[in-house]
From TrEMBL, chain A:
UniProt-recorded name of the protein: Cyclosome subunit 8
Pathway this chain belongs to: Protein modification; protein ubiquitination
A GO-annotated cellular component: anaphase-promoting complex
UniProt keyword annotation of Cytoplasm present: no
Cross-referenced Pfam families: ANAPC8 (PF04049), TPR_11 (PF13414), TPR_8 (PF13181)
UniProt entry keywords in alphabetical sequence: Cell cycle, Cell division, Mitosis, Repeat, TPR repeat, Ubl conjugation pathway
SMART domains assigned: TPR
GO biological process per UniProt: anaphase-promoting complex-dependent catabolic process; cell division; positive regulation of mitotic metaphase/anaphase transition; protein ubiquitination
Source taxon at top rank: Eukaryota
Species: Microthlaspi erraticum
UniProtKB/TrEMBL annotation, chain B:
Lineage: Eukaryota, Viridiplantae, Streptophyta, Embryophyta, Tracheophyta
Chain ranges of the Anaphase-promoting complex subunit domain: 323-423
GO BP annotations, alphabetical order: anaphase-promoting complex-dependent catabolic process; cell division; positive regulation of mitotic metaphase/anaphase transition; protein K11-linked ubiquitination
Pfam families according to UniProt: ANAPC5
Protein known as: Anaphase-promoting complex subunit 5
Organism: Microthlaspi erraticum
Domain of life: Eukaryota
């Protein structure tokens, strides 16, 4: 186990280094983890001094502006515990400072121009990074300018070629640090050279593990477990964060939960870990637990927008209108132009049955982020509700093309086609969806229903699907009932009785009543009676007597018949006459 | 607002259009003079005008030539003033140094247009009529430019820079490689390239050692290769162009343009912003690509198309037709999963409403989409991949959905597809599949046999297509009907009572009628061509036949028969018949060939196939072309011997990449089997026979024709191995199968085979009824050639009963002789000759010494033909008879010669040599 103290020191230094290089989101992430570490009350220090401990001795000796105020006595300790690389330049040049302020004002080209002749690794990185961002910005603009009648053209970042050339040259001469490698990896990925990008990013995170942005880029390149296992990563606690995230994306939720459990030992107050755990639990459909976690998360971090769309999904599933509207209001006030916020509002309207408005908000979310997977899927659901199947199919298909593993969208496609009376065509999509999530009874039941439609009427296949659904612990109890009915329909009374009994057991255990129960009882009573098992038949009949309605009458006549048969009256099967 | 920019996007200003504008300025300067400055004669001026006219017409094409290509074309058009023209062009471009210059340029352009109401135009003034072609072009350019936003102007400006830069970069190389005088420098350059290459590879190796993987950035050598290739290509093009311009002076402009546009197919990696064209253009272009995929089949490289499609997709993500094209491509390269995936994706996105010309847009209900078309396509895909049951299930659903949505058009097509499926493959368990559906069309048919169902489906489809005026479907249904009439025996459909006299027969007249009706399509089409044209394809029709020089060498290098196809191409240009129509007409010729084959006229069959191969080869789909080749090769094998046939087969094999179940593979096995049988290599024959059987699907009722043929061949092999009872068993069970599946025509040949078996086993009395039955079958099905050969067998059987029947046998033979000699293959003819000799020889009233020539002549003829066929057994028989006759006549020398030959054949028969390994 890594000591909390060393983690803390490492992260502190890392935050400084990252924000010095304008890698803000990585710095933000690191900061979240830093405060997530449980504070040791004994050596709790005021926040301003905490920052000094991370700085290396050399830096302090030459430091110019900010970190000189309070020299700390922990020099030796920090040197021993911190494996951070020594910085290659001690003083930020004046030009660097200027460039950084330009960068902070989002004047990227200006920043890179200022640094044009600087040869230190740090300056080179910032120059390239600024250039890259400038290219990205221009790309976004061009995408809108060049929009043709056939959709947005795929504008490219025009800086990529020159950046790639320069960075590869630097890499060959070895004049590149881990941040440069990270940028090189990003450029390579954009250019579509995934293997080399992966190798470069691995190199980067191995030499400097605290850059979370590099890890996320690497994660997005790990599309299968084989690739993930093939990575040659050196051990570090950051690797556990990475693996947890990667497992989650590869739908290995239990493995990912285990990782996060372990990490929680160190970072016990990390919001990030809590949110990730909630995500995993959500995929495992533990909605109650997820709701509690999110509530706690919001208490600690009330202005958080990230991952809140997931929370809204949970609230949607639990049909908690008030809570959902509260959440929507809150994120709306925090930042209304975040795709997540739009998605939450869309969910709210959907729950309220105002599908047109919901679609509008999902559309807005997609305008903000065209690759926002869940918005496509949710919009598909809305269109299904609005009976606009072609639009629904289009939306689902876009989701699937963004991420082919999205079983919800595959399922939605199947559903849409089934709605249009094309069950055979729909089967393909159900099969796809089940392929990605074979343990979900709902999907199996949907497929079985498809087989059961009057157009196909392939009952044997439907039975197979229901059996699978039962083995996946079908919570809604549709499968058992349907199995029994299908067997009954096919004249296999033994099997039918077996499944009716099972279904009855289930309903008893859950304390449910309803038409299904009557049906099961009636069938079982008649079945056992025809097989001369009068005792069982009587048991079911007497249970039926507890309820009112036509079933009661039926039970009475059945009982009469049983009595007669038992007393040896040979003829007159009363119950065969219509009542 | 978005709508406004979108409609404006229908005509975008591009650098190429600007160069056309510049040329137009030269052509019609606003100054007042009868002949503008650089032109020395009026004809020269007119030549430029014609050239510009073709350029403006071609502006709607998807590819635009690069500046360099334009300059090359100008060199030919401009003759002595080409230098001035190109200089002016490049100077004009280089003078455009800021967006403001562009603005000025276009306001200058206004000057060359005459005013709309100008009545007073002086005679010597050259002014573009604003309503002329050129004038319209200028006006469109100006309008499009005026609609551009400032960003748009900036983009145009930067693309002009790229346009000029490319030309500069390549022109240097171009000069170097094209002038023979400077071959030395060229050599130097080559050296340089090699050197650079070496260096690059060295580096590559180095860095490979370092990082363990091939670095991404080192693609420069490829670029170099590409550059050299490009030069070669240009050189080639130049040559062809020179030839052409000599041949037809007045067509120079057009042809040279074609060359230019053809070369761009290879390097599609042009500047992206230039690439994006209007919807119509791209749709038309994609249609052409689809045709190309179909024509070239699996022989065209799927990866190049794939990469091109990928590019197109990233440029125009909302262009869903790309997915369909990708589906077609995958379909032809036999990649089931990718094909399925792309098909579904296409219909998910487009909802079936995009681009299908079979849906009239007015009836398209946009609310529900047209997913029944998706089902139709999916069904056809399953059919093609050989999943008949799946296909039928999908098509049944298509029928149901199109009935629900009352899409009669789709229904007609689906029914046609269904009948096609049933007739080509058959289905395994007919009742379970068709019975489950509640659709009225199919459920009435559930109690009928497959053929009857095919008939009903066809009739239904035809009726609907007729009422909806779907001409192409009507035509193809007529053809399918003809095929049906040809192959299947008609019976009254619903009167199965004992009273209905079941008279089996086929009716050649109705076949003929159906074929004729099918061919009416072309006359329908030429009378009202405008209604049949499909969106976008017209815009490129102008250049379509001009592109042929590119397509031609790929396709026709291996077949000399297509030499004279230029005539039809020319017609193609004039009438612009869509490929699908000419495909259908072609199919009717193929069907004619097939029917003549069945009815027994070899020359007619051959002629029709040749007509097909010469006239329709260019537009035919690869499977049809394959069929034509197959027929021709079969003809060769039957009438010219195996040597020629195998040589032809080799050519065909190179042409059609043999995929799992291709017709060519089938043909090869058939040929090898026949050859092995004739040479007496029975083991090989058996093997081929088994392989043939292995090609058929294992499901019951599927691929029946193939199965029947395999067991027919098995029986023949057994017969050749003298295992008569086994052969008879196989033939008997085969007859039962044919009866069960209602295959009447096959029955006739099975009966003949049975007669043959009994004849060989020396049991002539048993054979007679079979032979007679076969003859009567042939009579009612109009199978004349088969009947002739059955008559021959009958005669042989009579002779087998004893020599006193030889007179009757001879009479029978002479009755069939005209048919046999006129249409029969080598084997049949030889058999007839030998048999004739046998008859004479066994006739006691015939004396050899007086009438030897009648016998000898036939025998000589027979042995010659059999030698070509390498049929050792029969050849030996003929030679034996010859030797005997010579012996009787006392001609020792000839006798010895004949007996030596006889011995040779016998030895060859007993030691069957292994087949040439390269053929097997």
């Amino acid at each position: 186990m890594v000591s909390k103290e060393s983690c803390r020191i490492e992260i502190r230094a890392a935050i400084r280094q990252l924000s010095d290089r304008c890698l803000y989101s990585a710095a933000k992430w690191a900061g979240e983890q830093l405060v997530g570490i449980e504070q040791d009350p004994s050596n709790f220090t005021p926040s301003n001094t905490r920052f000094q401990r991370g700085s290396s001795s050399i830096r302090r000796r030459f430091s110019t502006s900010e970190s000189i105020s309070t020299p700390q006595p922990t020099v030796g300790f920090s040197q021993a515990a911190s494996p951070l690389p020594e910085e290659d330049e001690v003083i930020d040049g004046d030009l660097y400072l200027l460039a950084k302020s330009y960068f902070d004002c989002r004047e990227y080209r200006r920043a890179s121009h200022v640094l044009r002749d600087q040869m230190s690794k740090k300056s080179i990185f910032l120059r390239c990074y600024a250039l890259y961002l400038a290219g990205e910005k221009r790309k976004e603009e061009e995408m809108i300018e060049l929009e043709g009648p056939l959709g947005k053209s795929d504008a490219i970042n025009r800086e990529l070629v020159s950046l790639e050339r320069e960075l590869s040259a630097l890499k060959r001469t070895g004049a590149i640090d881990s941040f440069g490698l990270y940028l090189y990896g990003v450029v390579l990925k954009e250019k579509g050279n995934e293997t080399l990008a992966r190798a470069t990013l691995v190199e980067s995170v191995n030499s400097y593990p605290w850059n979370w942005s590099a890890w996320t880029e690497l994660q997005s390149l790990c599309t299968s477990i084989e690739i993930l296992n093939g990575l040659n990563l050196s051990n570090h606690w950051m690797k556990d964060f990475f693996l947890g995230n990667a497992y989650q994306e590869l739908r290995m939720h239990t493995e990912s939960l285990a990782k996060y459990d372990y990490l929680q030992g160190i970072f016990s107050f990390s919001n990030y870990i809590q949110a990730q755990t909630a995500k995993a639990q959500y995929s495992l459909r533990e909605f109650d637990q997820v709701e509690i976690m999110f509530e706690e998360l919001l208490r600690n971090d009330p202005y958080r927008v990230e991952d809140m769309d997931l929370y809204s999904n949970v609230l949607y599933a639990k049909e908690a209108c008030a809570a959902l509207s509260y959440l929507a209001h809150k994120v709306f006030l925090t930042d209304k132009y975040r795709p997540e916020s739009c998605c939450i509002i869309g969910n709210y309207y959907s729950l309220k049955g105002q599908h047109e408005k919901a679609v509008m908000y999902f559309r807005r979310a997609l305008k903000l982020n065209k690759k926002y997977l869940s918005a496509w899927t949710l919009m598909g659901h809305e269109y299904v509700e609005m009976k606009n199947t072609p639009a629904a199919i289009d939306a689902y298909r876009r989701a699937v093309d963004i991420n082919p593993c999205d079983y919800r969208a595959w399922y939605g496609l199947g559903q849409a086609y089934e709605m249009m009376g094309m069950p055979f065509y729909a089967l393909h999509y159900f099969r796809k969806s089940i392929f990605f999530l074979p343990n979900d009874s709902r999907l199996w039941i949907a497929m079985a229903k498809c087989y059961q439609t009057e157009q196909l009427y392939m009952l044997e296949e439907a039975i197979k699907c229901y059996k699978r659904a039962v083995s996946c612990t079908d919570t809604e109890g549709i499968a058992l009932n349907q199995l029994a009915k299908l067997h009954q329909k096919l004249g296999r009374n033994e099997e039918a009785a077996f499944y009716f009994e099972k279904d009855l057991e289930r309903m008893d255990a859950e304390g449910l009543e309803g038409p299904n129960m009557f049906e099961a009882l009636v069938f079982l009573a008649t079945h056992f009676k025809t097989h001369k098992k009068f005792e069982e038949a009587e048991v079911y009949c007497t249970r039926l007597l507890d309820y009112s309605g036509p079933e009661k009458e039926k039970a009475k006549s059945l009982l009469r018949g049983i009595r007669m048969a038992q007393t040896g009256f040979p003829s007159m099967d009363m119950e065969h006459f219509p009542l | 607002m978005a709508g406004l920019t979108r409609t404006a996007g229908a005509f975008a200003v591009t650098p190429h259009k600007i160069s056309v504008c510049i040329l137009l300025q030269i052509y019609a300067p606003s100054a007042q003079m009868s002949l503008p400055f650089p032109f020395s004669s009026v004809s020269q001026h007119n030549r430029l005008g014609l050239y510009l006219l073709s350029l403006t017409k071609a502006c709607d094409d998807i590819y635009e030539p690069k500046l360099e290509e334009l300059i090359n074309q100008l060199r030919e058009v401009g003759e002595d003033m080409d230098a001035w023209l190109t200089d002016h062009l490049t100077n004009r471009f280089s003078s455009l140094s800021s967006p403001d210059d562009l603005l000025n340029f276009f306001s200058d352009m206004r000057g060359i247009l005459g005013s709309l109401d100008s009545g007073a135009v002086q005679d010597d003034q050259i002014i573009l009529d604003p309503n002329s072609n050129l004038g319209m072009f200028v006006r469109r350019c100006i309008l499009a430019f005026n609609l551009l936003s400032f960003e748009g102007v900036c983009h145009l400006f930067s693309s002009i820079e790229v346009y000029c830069k490319e030309a500069h970069a390549s022109s240097a190389q171009f000069e170097a490689s094209n002038s023979n005088l400077e071959s030395l420098t060229q050599y130097d350059q080559m050296d340089m390239e090699n050197y650079a290459l070496d260096k690059e590879t060295e580096e590559m190796e180095l860095s490979r050692n370092a990082s363990g993987s091939v670095p991404f950035h080192l693609h420069t050598p490829e670029a170099l290769f590409k550059a050299t290739e490009e030069q070669m290509k240009h050189a080639d093009l130049l040559v062809t162009r020179r030839e052409k311009s000599r041949a037809s002076k007045e067509k120079t402009e057009a042809t040279s343009f074609a060359c230019a546009s053809s070369s761009t197919f290879e390097d599609t990696l042009v500047d992206e912003s230039l690439f994006l064209r209007t919807n119509l253009q791209i749709q038309g272009f994609l249609m052409e690509q689809a045709d190309a995929i179909e024509i070239h089949g699996s022989s065209c490289s799927s990866s190049s198309i794939e990469s091109f499609l990928q590019q197109l997709q990233s440029l125009a993500p909302e262009l869903h037709r790309v997915h369909f094209l990708r589906y077609l491509n995958k379909l032809h390269s036999e990649d089931y999963f990718a094909a399925l995936d792309n098909l579904l994706r296409y219909f998910d996105y487009s909802a079936g409403t995009e681009g299908f010309d079979l849906v009239p847009p007015s009836t398209g209900c946009s609310m529900y989409g047209r997913y029944e078309i998706a089902l139709l396509c999916l069904g056809m895909m399953h059919f093609r991949f050989g999943h008949p049951n799946l296909a039928l299930e999908v098509l049944t659903e298509a029928v149901r959905v199109s009935q629900q949505l009352s899409n009669d058009t789709c229904l007609a097509y689906t029914l046609a597809a269904m009948s096609n499926l049933l007739s080509e493959m058959g289905i395994a368990s007919t009742t379970s599949v068709l019975g489950s559906s509640y659709s009225p069309v199919t459920s009435t048919a559930s109690s009928l046999s497959v053929q009857q169902r095919v008939y009903i489906l066809l009739k239904e489809s035809l009726r609907r297509a007729d009422s909806l005026k779907l001409r192409r479907l009507v035509a193809s249904n007529h053809l399918a009907m003809a095929k049906f009439e040809l192959m299947h025996v008609q019976r009254p459909l619903l009167s199965f009572g004992p009273k209905a006299s079941v008279r089996h027969k086929t009716c050649p007249v109705s076949v003929c009628k159906e074929i004729r009706l099918g061919a009416h399509l072309i006359s329908d089409f030429s009378s009202e061509s405008s209604t049949m044209t499909v969106d976008g394809s017209l815009s490129s029709v102008w250049l379509r036949d001009l592109q042929k020089p590119w397509g031609q060498p790929v396709f026709s290098q291996d077949s000399g028969s297509r030499k004279n196809s230029t005539f039809f191409q020319f017609c193609d240009h004039l009438v612009s018949i869509p490929g699908s129509v000419s495909q259908l007409i072609g199919a009717s010729y193929l069907l004619r060939a097939t029917s003549w084959e069945l009815y027994g006229s070899a020359p007619m069959a051959r002629m029709n196939t040749l007509v097909y191969a010469t006239l329709f080869g260019d537009s035919s789909s690869s499977s049809d072309a394959e069929l034509a080749y197959l027929k021709l090769i079969q003809h060769l094998a039957l009438y010219k011997g195996y040597k020629d046939a195998f040589a032809a087969l080799k050519i065909a094999e190179e042409k059609f990449v043999t995929v799992s179940k291709s017709k060519i593979l089938l043909l090869k096995l058939q040929l090898l089997h026949e050859h092995a049988l004739h040479r007496g290599n029975l083991k090989l024959a058996q093997r081929m026979c088994n392989e043939l059987g292995g090609l058929a699907s294992t499901a019951m009722g599927v691929d029946m024709e193939l199965k029947v043929e395999a067991s027919l061949r098995e029986a023949r092999t057994l017969l050749a191995a003298k295992q008569y009872s086994q052969a008879a068993n196989v033939a008997h069970s085969l007859f039962c199968t044919c009866h069960k599946y209602n295959m009447q025509i096959e029955k006739a040949s099975v009966l003949l085979l049975l007669a043959e078996i009994h004849k060989k086993s020396g049991n002539a009395v048993l054979g007679l009824p079979y032979a007679l039955a076969s003859i009567s079958f042939c009579q009612s099905f109009n199978l004349d050639l088969l009947k002739a050969s059955a008559t021959l067998t009958l005669a042989e059987l009579w002779l087998g009963l004893g020599s006193n029947h030889s007179k009757r046998a001879l009479d029978l033979l002479h009755g069939a002789f005209p048919m046999i000699l006129g249409h029969g293959g080598l084997e049949l003819r030889a058999r007839a000759y030998i048999f004739e000799a046998n008859c004479y020889l066994s006739d006691p009233s015939f004396s050899v010494s007086t009438d030897s020539e009648t016998v000898l002549d036939s025998l000589r003829q027979a042995s010659d033909e059999l030698q070509a066929l390498e049929y050792h057994e029969l050849a030996a028989e003929a030679l034996y008879l010859m030797a005997m006759v010579y012996d009787k006549l006392g001609q020792i020398e000839e006798r010895e010669e004949a007996s030596a030959m006889f011995k040779k054949h016998l030895i060859a028969l007993e030691n069957p040599l292994e087949m040439e390994p390269n053929i097997v």
